[in-house]
Specification:
- The chain has 339 residues and is α/β, with parallel strands linked by helices.
- The protein has a domain of 212 residues: NAD(P)-binding Rossmann-like Domain (Rossmann fold).
- It is 41% helix and 18% strand.
- The strands form five sheets. The chain has a seven-stranded parallel β-sheet with strand order 3-2-1-4-5-7-12, sandwiched between helices. It has a two-stranded parallel ribbon with strand order 6-15.
- Helix 2 links the parallel strand 2 and strand 3.
- Helix 3 packs parallel to helix 5, helix 5 packs parallel to helix 6 and helix 9 packs across helix 11.
- Bound molecules: UDP-4-deoxy-4-formamido-beta-L-arabinopyranose.
- UDP-4-deoxy-4-formamido-beta-L-arabinopyranose (WQD) binds next to helix 7 and strand 9.
């Protein structure tokens, strides 16, 4: 069986690691990516890791005609939809860019799936749908979704709503919304990893770029939060664990005897503070990082981490890697990028 799996945004950070996991599990990923938010260096890395270039079509997911033609070219066993912008800050300054790409892209993919009778769908959702958890910081899939803090968060919140409404009209679909926490790290080969375009928004790439000298100094946004050391708490999950969860989610959908709409948290189940991630980086690399405290960042959630009981029960998946593994893999990737 071909076992073709469409991976939109497959040249991106999480997408490229998922392409590796799919191949390692015997599937044939078909990447759709127009490289608007990805760098072609990933292709060299994928070729080295996999021994050959994966199937790739440079298509904009907002171009429904081209996307539909691809559904005629392949018989897809499933679709994993990553293609979307994801910088929280940028989404505030350019909301329409986010709504066009993230919402229209999703609508196109869903329409092509229904039209071409492809039923298995994994959606790249986010813990941002929980907003700032009220009281309980460890969120389960039934923790109420609060209104997001940014247009980016709204595209995920609305994305889940669009998917739920679509499922009501097309109950043959088998859908898994994976709610990521904070993806970090890189492949152990250091041949693929996160490739921030411009100044990194996220914490770990800013740490590694500061350590390598591309950034002057890391600013820790706020040190007076009501947490163990005054800095925010996040659930940092290794990107390779996250990639594996996508394969397990597809396998779970394939096992279903009828249509299904489901949601899973994908995190480690453990919260770590910003300072703990910095300390892990310094301890594992032996480097002293140049950082200082600065003012809080608008829109930051104080503390959130995943309850992962359902992920283990439903898809028999649990994160295997630690934040120490993640900081080391991220550092090796940063050194490779600058070699
Ligand atoms: C983490 C912590 C910052 C940079 C991310 C993604 C979002 C979603 C959820 C998937 C915060 C602090 C950061 C810096 C800092 N993921 N920080 N100095 O905001 O949790 O959101 O995870 O969908 O797409 O963006 O991640 O890495 O930006 O921030 O102090 O230079 O690190 O204040 O407390 P965030 P982040």
């Amino acid at each position: 069986m071909s076992k073709f799996v469409l991976v939109t945004g497959g040249a991106g950070y999480i997408g490229s690691h998922t392409v590796v996991s799919l191949v390692q599990n015997g599937y044939t990923p078909v990447i759709v990516d127009d490289f608007r938010n990805a760098n072609r260096i990933v292709l060299k890395g994928l070729e080295s890791i996999l021994g050959k270039l994966p199937l790739l079509h440079e298509i904009d997911v907002c171009d429904q005609k081209s996307l539909d033609a691809l559904f005629k070219q392949y018989t897809f066993e499933g679709v994993i939809h990553f293609a979307a912008y994801k910088a929280v800050g940028e989404s505030v300054s350019e909301p329409l860019k986010y709504y066009r790409n993230n919402i229209l892209g999703l609508v196109n993919v869903l329409e092509c799936m229904i039209k071409n009778h492809v039923n298995n769908f994994v959606f790249s959702s986010s813990c941002t749908v929980y907003g700032e958890p009220q009281g309980q910081k460890e969120v389960t899939e039934s923790t109420p979704k609060l209104l997001p803090e940014s247009p980016y968060g709204y595209t995920k919140w609305m994305g889940e709503q669009i998917i739920a409404d679509t499922f009501r009209s097309a109950p043959q679909l088998r859908i898994m919304n994976l709610r990521y926490f904070n993806p970090v790290g890189a492949h152990e080969s250091a041949l693929i990893g996160e490739f921030p375009i411009g100044r990194p928004n996220n914490l770990l790439p800013f740490i590694t770029q500061t350590a390598i000298g591309k950034q002057e100094q890391l600013i820790v946004f706020g040190n007076n939060y009501p947490t163990k050391d005054g800095t925010c708490v996040r659930d940092f999950i290794h990107v390779v664990d996250l990639a594996e969860a996508h394969v397990r989610a597809l396998q779970y959908l394939w096992k279903q005897s009828a249509g299904k709409l489901d949601y899973l948290n994908v995190g480690t189940g453990k919260g770590s503070t910003v300072l703990e991630l910095i300390q892990a980086f310094e301890t594992k690399t032996g480097l002293k990082l140049n950082w200082k405290f600065g003012p809080r960042r608008e829109g930051d959630v104080v503390e959130i981490y995943a309850n992962v009981d359902s992920s283990f029960k439903k898809i028999a998946w649990k994160a295997q890697r630690t934040i120490e593994d993640a900081v080391m893999d991220a550092w090796n990737w940063e050194k490779y990028l600058n070699s």
